[in-house]
Amino acid sequence: MTGLLLLPLAPVRGTLWVADHLLQEAERQAGDPRAVQARLAALNRALEEGTIDEAAFEEEEERLLARLDSPVRYTGHRGGAS
What is the value of pTM for the model shown? Predict the structure, then answer.
């Protein structure tokens, strides 16, 4: 009986499940040091090519370096909490 009552909520629950998994994957990729290093390399190329100015470079570089020092790592978990 409960299954029938919750059936109208299935699309919402499915959407929330997908959104949660997308968020987890984004956090995993954001904490992957290889991805951050690749972004830093691209940032350096953009500066060398003149597509960004020094101020924009420094701002983005600082943000990326902070991400490397962040407790969020490749696993997507924060500081040891599971």
Answer: 0.53
